[in-house]
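tool_call: predict_structure(chain=1)
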Amino acid sequence: MKKWTGPTKQGLQWLALIAVFILAIIYWSSIVGAVGILWSVLFPIILGGMIAFVLNIPMRWFEKHLFPKSDNKYLKASRRPLAIILALLVIILAITAVVIIVIPQLASAVMTLVEVVPTLVENIQNWFNQQEALVPMLNQLTDQMNVNWSSVVSSVASGVNSIASGVAATSIAVLTTSVSAVTNIFLALMFAIYILASKEKLGKQITRSMAVYLPNDIENLLLNVLAVANETFSKFISGMVTEAVILGVLVTAGLLILQIPYAAMLGVLQGVLALIPILGAFMAGAIGVVILLALNPTYAFVYIIFVLIIQQVEGDLIYPRVVGDSIGLPSMWVLFAVTVGAGLMGIPGMLLGVPFLASIYKILKLDVRYRETLEANSANQEDTDHVKFLDSFRHHLLTNDEIDCL
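tool_result:
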C-alpha cells in the first residue's frame, strides 16, 4: 500500500481542511441547529462541571482544615462529605445574602425611578427655559434640529410605562420556564456533588485513558493545557471573589457613613459587578448614579466622588495584592477578553473571558519560551528545567495538591 509523504501528504491535508471548511459553510445552519440540540442536552452536565469547579475551591480549604491531625478513620472518611456540605452552604448563603439585600432595595429604587423620571425630565426642561442666556441659543439649536420637547417628555414617560408593563410580561415568561430551570439546576448540583466526591478516581481514569489512547506528545500537551487552565481559573475566581467582598464592604461602610440612601444595595451591587473586570465598576457606578439622581442630585454627586476614590484605592492597593498576577494579562487584552466575551455569551462571557484568554496567553508564553530554549540550546538551569516542562506535566498534575483534576 502506497504511503503519501512529503509535499504530497501536506497538500492532501490542506485539501481536506479546505473541503471541511467549505462543507461547514454550506451546512452552517444545520451545524448550528445540531450544536444547539447537543448544548440543550448536555447543559446540565456542563453546568454541573462548572459548579463543581467553583465549589472545589472552598471545599479544598475545608478539607484541609477539618480534622487535620486526626487518625480516626471515621473522621477521615467524613472529611470529604463535610467539606462538600460546608462549601455548598457557603455558596448558598452568599447568594441568599445578595438576593435579600439587593432585590428588595433595587425594586424600591426602580419604582421610585419610574415615578420620578417624567417629573425629572420636565424639571430639566424648565431649568433650561429659566436660563435666559441659553434660551436664544437653545431655541435656535432646537429649531434647526426640529425638536419637540413636549413630545420628548411624553415619549420618555410612555417609555417608562412600557418598561413597567414589560416587566410584568417578562415575569410571566420567567414563571413558565422556571420548572425547566429548576430541573437543570438540580441535575447540575447532583452531577457536581458526584464529581467532587470522586474527583481523584475520575482524574486517574481520565489520565489513564489519555495515556492509552493518545500519543505521548498529545497527552503531555493536553495535560499541560488542563493544568495551566485549572491554575489560572482557580486563582482568578478566588482572587476576584475576595476582592469583590472587600470592595463591597468598603463601599457599603462608606455610603453608610455618608448617609447615602440604598447604601447596602449599592455596596453589594458594586462588589458583585466587580467580578466583571474593567466594565463592572462602570456598570455599578452608572446604576448607582441613575438611582440616586432620581432621589437627589447631591447624592449622585457625592456617590460619584466616593466611588472614584474607592476605585483608585482598589486599583492601586487591593487588586495587586489580592488578585496579584493570577490573570497575567496586559490591560488591553483584559478589555479585549471582556468585550469579546460579552458579545459571544453576555454576562457569563464577561466573567469567563478573562481567565480563558489568560490561560491561552500563559500557554502561548510557555510554548514560545520552550521553542526559544530548544533553539538556543542553553545550559542555563532555568531553561533546562523549562525544556522538561511538558514531559513532567503528567506527574505534576497527579501529585501536586494545588493543581488537581478539578
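agent: Residues 381-406 have pLDDT under 50 and may be disordered. Proceeding to next step.
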